[in-house]
Amino acid sequence: MIRKPVLGSAGFVVVLLSLVAFAPGTLSQGQVREKAGAEKTIFGKIEDGTVINLFTLKNAKGTTATIMEYGATLQGLWVPDKTGKLGDVVLGFDGLEGYLGPHPYFGGTIGRFANRIAKGKFTLDGKEFSTALNDGPNSLHGGKEGFNRKVKRPHAASVRLTYFSPDGEEGFPGTLRAAVTYTLTDENELKIDYTASSDKATPVNLTSHAYFNLAGSGSVLDHSLYLNADKYTPADATLIPTGEIVPVEGTPFDFRQATSIGARISQLTGNPGGYDHNFVLNGWNGKLKLAARLSDPASGRQMEMWTTEPGVQFYSGNFLDGTIKGKQGAVYQKHAALCLEAQHFPDSVNHPNFPTTILQPGAIYKQETVYKFLVN
Ligand code: GLA
């Protein structure tokens, strides 16, 4: 799977930052290079005393993204509303502790495999693999300790965070070298680039699990959403795709005209009781394309998502249930945020009719997703 994304509008890169996740003992040598505007602060320490740093990217408009080494996590994203007032549009925690405890992937980089693999099983080159089960009978977001739980170290003269995932980690074959690069441009785009390579054939599906709320608080049911998708992949009760690719026409999944998220959500009664589906993006060719546009009428904030991926998991925060206290003591209720996870389709490894997620040795996996912020 070699994909060469075309870069979006080449805005001035204020800061490029390299995050490195690593398996114990395989940390690459290097140091962070901080360009003008980059700021590094200590976010906390994990149990073994390892210091976790937080990096701040700021552009000319004042838009600010904070990214931390643990999980290559997007911890904060302050963007202007229609009056120019900055608000934090992603869920998460003020301190490291929250991220070390149980939480639903707030802002994390997801790997090796975004979303689910049915029963954690797949066959590759005649061999059966079993990945870690962490979601009922299935494997979710890379297993029990996915990339979102790995410590990343700043490294190298470049501005990427890289991770060496050992052969067999969470049941996946091959040693995988993965990198994620966050870039904030003066056009208010947060670009996330991923690359990976492996020494054996292996499935790879990386994504970002940022939870967006363009109002900065409250529910996202009033947000309006456009999705550039004529089709979606229905899922069974355990959220595994049935393998069908069906038209959205005439269903609550039709977002081809911007529609408020709450308008039809009550029609989705089963598990998960809301949107948690993979949408098949129109005209996929591996180049950067507009996938989604989200707007919050009250604040005037808008976010476009552009991606090189064939799918997007639109998840309407259905499992948030008020048990998590996040930033500034905020209690995250059902639908307090939504995720737009650019990805290959869930469980692709078990559906030959889905675009392949198998990365062959010698090939380079590439993924680029851009979240662009606007006001109206
Ligand atoms: C993804 C999945 C959801 C849920 C969240 C995390 O979006 O599709 O079902 O597991 O992650 O809570």
Secondary-structure blueprint of this entry?
Elements lengths: L12 E9 L17 E7 L5 E8 L5 E5 L4 E8 L5 E3 L7 H5 L8 E2 L5 E2 L3 E4 L2 E4 L8 E2 L20 E5 L10 E10 L3 E10 L3 E2 L3 E2 L15 E4 L3 E3 L12 E2 L11 E2 L15 E5 L8 E7 L5 E7 L3 E5 L23 E5 L14 E2 L5 E11 L1
Parallel strand pairs: 1-12
Antiparallel strand pairs: 1-13, 2-3, 3-4, 4-5, 5-6, 7-16, 8-11, 9-10, 12-13, 13-14, 14-27, 15-26, 17-20, 17-22, 18-19, 18-21, 21-24, 22-23, 23-27, 24-25
The protein binds alpha-D-galactopyranose.
In a nutshell, what does this entry contain?
The chain has 376 residues and is mainly β.
Would you mind describing this structure in some detail?
By secondary structure, the protein is an all-beta fold. The protein is built from 1 helix and 27 strands. Strands 1, 12, 13, 14, 17, 20, 22, 23 and 27 form a 9-stranded mixed beta sheet that branches. Strands 2-3-4-5-6 form a 5-stranded antiparallel beta sheet, with no helix packed on it. Strand 3 and strand 4 (64-68) form a beta hairpin. The termini are far apart. The relative contact order is 0.19. Bound molecules: alpha-D-galactopyranose (GLA). Alpha-D-galactopyranose binds next to strand 24 and strand 25.
